Amino acid sequence: MALSAGIKAPPINLNDESGRPFSLASLLGKSVILYFYPKAGTGGCTLESEEFRDQSAQFAAKDAIIVGISPDKEADQLQFKTNLGLPFRLLADPDHTVAEAYEVWKEKFKDGEPYKGVERTTFLIDPDGTIRHVFTAVNPDGHAEEVLAMV
Questions:
Q1: How many CB atoms neighbour CB 38 within 10 A?
Q2: Does residue 4 belong to any structural domain of this protein?
Q3: Mean pLDDT in residue range 68-97
Q4: Per-residue pLDDT tens for 110-133?
Q5: Edge-to-edge, what's the strand order for the sheet holding 31-36?
Q6: Mapping DSSP to helix (H, G, I), strand (E, B) and coil, where does residue 52 land?
Q7: Residue 115's pLDDT is what?
Q8: Does residue 42 form part of some domain?
Q9: Which residue of 25, 86, 91, 106 could cross-link 14, Cys pair, CB 3.0 to 4.6 Å?
């Protein structure tokens, strides 16, 4: 069954950019914006993260927590977070186990060659842990505002 609105969000137990354990279950009672991005420091991922950063106070006012996740290692996530001044946690999923559980680890193509990677996707998760909305084929430009309107 594909992940869609109305389904319980799969559990997440990963380390964040500082090596601290993170569990999605620890955020029960709050709305969660879980955004998957392909690679820290790249153009689209930077734009998307900056927009979430710039809207972070508005998300907080709606009692919503932003969490970013990519296949990058902890050190790369820390550098990305520091460089952009991100006020939210970034999760390291180097084995892409969570990306696979959320069905965002997909076959992609670069220069005609297939490879596996994260398809930019955002999940809006309700306080009870149920997925409310899935944003697929995300265009980073204006995405944070689009998500904020649905929280």
A1: 17
A2: no
A3: 97
A4: 888 888 999 999 999 999 999 999
A5: 21-23, 13-16, 89-92, 64-70, 31-36, 121-125, 131-135
A6: helix
A7: 87
A8: yes
A9: 91
CATH number, domain with residue 78: 3.40.30.10
pTM above 0.85, yes or no: yes
Q: Which domain holds residue 50?
A: 13-121+136-148
Tokens of 128: 């009870």
Query: For residue 59, what are its two tokens?
Result: 């998300």
Domain count of the fold of the chain: 1
Collapsing DSSP to helix, strand or coil, 55 comes out as coil
Alpha helices in the chain (DSSP H): 43-54, 56-61, 74-84, 97-101, 143-148
Closest CA to 6 of 129, 131, 127, 147: 131
Tokens read off for 123: 């999940």
- Compute the distance between CA of residue 148 and CA of residue 60 in angstroms, rounded to an integer: 10
DSSP β-ladder status, 121-125 and 105-110: unpaired
Rounded-to-integer distance, Cα 144 and Cα 150, Å? 10
Asked if residue 2 belongs to a domain, the reply is: no
Closest Cα to residue 72, out of 111, 113, 115, 41?
A: 41
Residues with catalytic roles: 45
Q: Does the residue 130 lie in any domain? A: no
